[in-house]
Write a structure and sequence with these properties.
Distance between the termini: 19 Å
Number of strands: 3
Helix content: 10-25%
Shape: globular
Strand order of the largest sheet: 1-2-3
Structural class: alpha/beta
Mean pLDDT: 88
Order of helices and strands: HEEHEH
Oligomer: single chain
């Protein structure tokens, strides 16, 4: 599918949780699901509307952004975008 998008500079995908690609985890405490980042080394940061509900130490391990901080999230994504094929 990415080949069909050419020539695009950046493709954002939703889903593909098990695929080894760089990820930004979106987490809302009210949904009641556990964080994925402790088990997925490809998660580079967390964006949340509930920073105070994150487990202790999360912000020490990963960058944490407010969901409403669009500029910070976009800057992080652009800075961590990869070019070329991704390895395992």
């Amino acid at each position: 599918v990415l080949a069909r998008l050419s020539p695009c500079d950046l493709a954002l995908v939703e889903g593909y949780k098990a695929f080894p690609i760089p990820k930004l985890e979106i987490w809302r405490a009210e949904v009641g699901k556990p964080l994925l980042h402790p088990r997925d080394k490809h998660i580079l940061a967390v964006a949340t509307d509930s920073r105070e509900a994150l487990p202790p130490g999360t912000a020490a391990r990963l960058p944490v952004f407010a969901l409403s901080d669009f500029d910070a999230v976009a800057t992080f994504v652009a800075a961590h975008a990869t070019a070329g094929p991704l390895g395992n």
